[in-house]
Design a protein that fits this description.
By secondary structure, the protein is an alpha/beta fold. The protein is built from four helices and 15 strands.
């Protein structure tokens, strides 16, 4: 925790200064809610279950008994809450001589920005570690794999991974879309999954818009661009892999981002006059991922 003193704001005491700008401290727009499934919690540990599907219906021969099925738990994952904190101190002298209130405003915005960035980095770490063994999901497999195990079908897997395919090539997008037709439930039946959303680094925004554009180029008599289904794309500023990209079906829970609480308050009421400005922000949250039948990842080229 750092303390702001008088000499920290000496330049702002200069009579020739007309205004102090703090717009550069504004928090970035929230990105993670567009590509995760938010869950709210009031417990220290939250558990999530996926249920196995029963097999398909069948024609029963007259007088034969019915084969009864049962719904089973498939995979379970749990989230343990974490406490995230940050704070600053401002001395009474610094507050008294801060004639433009620039220090208080800047520090408040800086604290809000640091908490926001922690949120974004905490969520996107799953996308940055989709092939990392330490980030394996509840079924024991990493998030991006061609061996996503089905609970009741040993040796049968969902195809959820494409490798080193260029984001700029429309044919690769078509291949990704077709992969959704291969998804199966835990009984081996087909899942009617189709991509509704996409996610990649903000670095790739212009490439995505070019691939999915349907406007004619100058001199074209017809649209020669590859017509692709309408997929809503989301962009992350915090992804470390600028080549990676994914598609997912919004109807299925994606990454579960468990948000416990968010509080902004003056935490030291008894010394409020001395510590005139104190900004305490904390959130208890952790991220978890359950095996998702509606998500495809590509490492890019």
């Amino acid at each position: 925790m750092a303390t702001t003193l008088m000499n920290d704001i000496s330049r702002m005491l200069d009579a020739d200064i007309s205004e102090v700008f703090t717009e550069n401290f504004e928090a970035y727009p929230i990105e993670w809610p567009s590509f995760v499934t938010e869950k709210k919690s009031n417990k220290l540990v939250m558990k999530y279950d996926t249920m196995g599907n029963i097999s398909e219906a069948y024609i029963k021969t007259e007088s034969d008994n019915i084969s009864y099925r049962k719904i089973q738990q498939a995979y379970q994952t749990s989230c343990t809450m974490k406490t995230i904190v940050n704070g600053i101190c401002i001395s009474l002298e610094a507050k008294t001589f801060d004639q433009y209130s620039g220090t208080s405003e800047a520090h408040g915005k800086e604290l809000a920005r640091t908490m926001r960035e922690f949120e974004e980095n905490r969520v996107i770490r799953w996308y940055d570690n989709v092939t990392t063994a330490a980030y394996a999901l509840a079924d024991g497999a990493v998030w991006a794999t061609n061996s996503r195990p089905l609970y009741n079908c040993p040796g049968t897997f969902n195809d959820t991974y494409a490798t080193t395919a260029s984001l700029k090539t429309p044919e690769n997008h078509k291949t990704m879309i077709k992969m959704f037709a291969d998804f199966k439930n835990h009984a081996g039946g087909k899942i009617k999954a189709f991509p509704t959303d996409g996610l990649t680094h903000r670095y790739n925004m212009s490439d995505i818009q070019e691939v999915y554009s349907s406007d004619n180029k100058s001199g074209e008599f017809s649209n020669t661009k590859n017509m692709l289904p309408s997929i809503q794309w989301h962009y992350s500023t915090y992804m470390s892999d600028t080549n990676g990209w994914s598609m997912f079906d919004r109807r299925f829970p994606n990454l579960c981002f468990v948000k416990y609480m968010g509080i902004q308050k003056n935490a030291i009421q008894d010394v409020k006059d001395t510590l005139d400005f104190y900004y305490n922000v904390y959130e208890m949250f952790e991220t978890c991922v359950i095996p998702n039948p509606g998500w495809v990842w590509n490492d890019g080229a």
